[in-house]
Amino acid sequence: MIEVQPIPENCPACGTPLQNNAAFCHRCGTATGVPREVLYEREKEPTGYEWRTRTQIFGVPLIHVCSNVKDEEGKTKIAKGIIASGDIAVGVFASGGLALGVLTAGGMSAGLLGAFGVIAVGGGFAFGGIAVAGGVAFGGIAIGSSPNGGLELTWVSILHRLFG
Predict the structure, then answer these.
(1) CA–CA distance from 108 to each of 27, 47, 94 (Å)?
(2) Which candidate, 28, 29, 36, 50, places its Cα nearest to that of 7?
(3) Contact indicator for 85, 94 with CB cutoff of 8 Å
(4) Mean pLDDT on 65-91
(5) In angstroms, rounded to a whole number, what is the distance separating the alpha carbons of residues 86 and 2?
(6) HSE-CB of 10 using CA atoms within 13 angstroms
(7) CA 22-24-29 angle, 5° bins
(8) Measured distance CA(38)–CA(35) in Å, rounded
(9) pLDDT interval class at 158 (50, 70, 90)
(10) pLDDT tens-digit profile of 37-67?
């Protein structure tokens, strides 16, 4: 049989009130006897946030925010909406760790019109550490029709080097 002991409210040596299941008295340093499991107890359910508007356009939510949420299989849930934000976001306007859409911003970002991110790929423009665009690209490494950055490569120069 396991013996359960109550968690002390006061220091057993000096009587000072203890704070938040303290392992030691902050006044005299005496060990309080609080079980280790109590000291290191963590929340079992991951905390996450998901919200979406009731308003839909062509069956897609106007706004969908989904951060640190897993589905039934334990996979990261994707934020999908006209405006989407989350760990993985897909939308007309998308922002997140991985963002895909028309105009995007994120760690890794791909947008048909434009993209902002550490790694950004955009049809028209891209701004990022590594920026690849059909048109204007700004970045440490910039590849595009009109690149601006530390290392600049145009599509013409790449094709010329590949095919002579």
Answers:
(1) 50, 24, 11
(2) 36
(3) yes
(4) 92
(5) 45
(6) 5
(7) 150
(8) 6
(9) confident
(10) 554 444 445 578 899 999 999 999 999 999 9
When pLDDT is averaged across residues 102-115 and rounded to a whole number, the result is 97
8, burial (CB in 10 Å: exposed 0-12, middle 13-18, buried 19+): middle
Q: What is the DSSP string of the chain?
A: -PPP-PPPSB-TTT-PBP-TT-SB-TTT--B----HHHHT---SSPP-EEEE-S-EETTEESEEEEES-B-TTSPBPPEEEEEEEEEEEEEEEEEEEEEEEEEEEEEEEEEEEEEEEEEEEESSEEEEEEEEESSEEEEEEEEESEEEEEEEEEHHHHHHHHH-
Q: Between 35 and 60, where is the model more confident?
A: 60
> Please, are residues 83 and 62 in contact by the beta-carbon 8 Å criterion?
yes
The strand pairing partners of 152, in sequence order, are 142
20: left (phi over 0), alpha (psi -120 to 50) or beta: left
Average pLDDT over residues 128-135: 95
Burial zone of 85 (CB within 10 Å; 0-12 exposed, 13-18 middle, 19+ buried): buried
